[in-house]
Specification:
26% strand; seven-stranded mixed β-sheet; alpha/beta; globular; single chain; 7 helices; 14 strands; Metallo-beta-lactamase, Chain A; binds zinc ion; 254 residues
Length: 254
């Protein structure tokens, strides 16, 4: 499985893009940034977008991707897949002909460039050439983490979450698990904010690690750009050598 980091951050800064990952060139996991990281031919190759939740830093790139697809004349389309409340929000609150055009009817309702698919929570489902299990996590809006594998290797993707249980429990025993891709938003001094906004800090991650499968690398994404240096220093102090920050534009093969 090839995982390309299109956006490694929890917001936007200069050269720092919101969260998005491209698996095997065809499947997005979150879509905070797409067009800012991919050429047009690479965008047209995207077939599915698995979305953790409807916050802008995870979906803004889907707006521009849909426009790229809308202008192309080769019949490309993306299927946006998530749990029911996320799909409902995307339909009603984003692609609603007010905030952004309803690309599920463009260029024609019979052959749109955006399709939706509702994923069933806690059930493993086929998405493209992957197997995906959405599991609800602990955020301020309905949010899923995902267990993603290709039959031989896989990862756990946390979405945005504060301390959580079900995702780690569900992934327990997954064969071929190569990494936990875990969010971290704020430095330790903003712990109270992390608690309200339901995000991780390095101190919370240190505790979360005890719930994770042993010896599996923990790859961090979603640090807010202005805190990157501070959070990096705090993460580096977590003992055990399991925790590292994902590098934007890097492709990880597992
Ligand atoms: Zn986020
Ligand atoms: Zn969020």
């Amino acid at each position: 499985m090839k995982i390309r980091v299109l956006g490694a951050f929890g917001s936007e800064g200069i050269g720092q893009r919101p969260s998005a990952f491209l698996v095997n060139d065809k499947i997005l996991i979150d879509g905070g940034s797409v067009s800012g990281a991919l050429t047009v031919p690479e965008q047209l190759a995207v077939e599915h977008a698995i979305v953790s939740h409807a916050h802008l830093d995870h979906i803004a790139g889907l707006a521009y991707l849909s426009e790229t697809l809308g202008f192309c004349e080769v019949g490309a389309a993306v299927t946006i897949a998530s749990i029911d409340p996320v799909i409902t929000t995307l339909r009603a609150g984003v692609f609603n002909n007010t905030l952004w055009p309803d690309f599920s009817k463009i260029p024609h309702p019979d052959v749109p460039v955006v399709k939706y698919r509702t994923l069933i929570e806690d059930v493993e489902q086929r998405v493209g050439d992957l197997w995906v299990t959405p599991v609800a996590v602990n955020h301020t809006v309905p949010t899923a983490g995902f267990i993603v594998h290709d039959g031989s290797t896989g990862v756990i993707y946390s979405g945005d979450t504060g301390p959580t249980q079900a995702l780690w429990r569900t992934a327990c025993g997954l064969r071929g698990l190569r990494a936990v891709i875990l969010e971290c938003a704020f430095p330790n001094r903003l712990g109270p904010l992390a608690q309200v906004a339901k995000h991780m800090t390095p101190a919370l991650i240190r505790r979360e690690i005890d719930k994770l499968p042993p010896n599996i690398p923990v790859w961090i994404f979603h640090v807010k750009p202005q805190f990157h240096e501070e959070v990096s220093e705090e993460l580096a102090r977590i003992e055990g050598g399991r925790v590292s920050i994902l590098e934007q534009d890097h492709t990880y093969s597992i």
